[in-house]
């Protein structure tokens, strides 16, 4: 299990459960990364507006692999450039 860091662009968000989403993010270093963002749908959740479509995010994720499945846990924060 290794921790990876990257900057990426949110290209897809799909509801998974009452509080979680499956998020697909495109990064330069790792290509297309999909993972489960736990608590993303809560009103006062940890992601706020970071997971809006086409938003640029700073991403920290953990790759966990088992026999048939690659799991990715996401931690994202929105990047706001100076205007």
Structure description:
With 83 residues, the chain is mostly beta strands. The protein has a single domain, classed as Nucleic acid-binding proteins (OB fold (Dihydrolipoamide Acetyltransferase, E2P)), CATH 2.40.50.140. The chain is built from no helices and five strands. The chain has a five-stranded antiparallel sheet with strand order 3-2-1-4-5, with no helix packed on it. Strand 4 and strand 5 form a beta hairpin.
| CATH topology title | OB fold (Dihydrolipoamide Acetyltransferase, E2P)
Average of per-residue pLDDT values: 79
Largest sheet: 5 strands, antiparallel
The total beta strand count reads 5
Structural class: mainly beta
The number of helical elements comes to 0
Determine the N-to-C terminus distance: 38 Å
Strand order of the largest sheet: 3-2-1-4-5
Q: Please, how many domains?
A: 1
Q: What would the principal axes of the Cα set say about the shape?
A: globular
Class in CATH? Mainly Beta
How helix-rich are the residues, as a percent range? Answer: under 10%
Following the backbone from N to C, one meets helices and strands in this order, namely: EEEEE
Level-2 CATH architecture: Beta Barrel
Strand content: over 45%
Quick structural gist:
0% of the residues lie in helices and 57% in strands. With 83 residues, it is mainly beta.
Helix-strand layout with pairing:
Layout: E1 2-15, E2 21-27, E3 31-37, E4 56-65, E5 70-78
Search tags:
single chain, 83 residues, mainly beta, OB fold (Dihydrolipoamide Acetyltransferase, E2P), 5-stranded antiparallel beta sheet, 0% helix
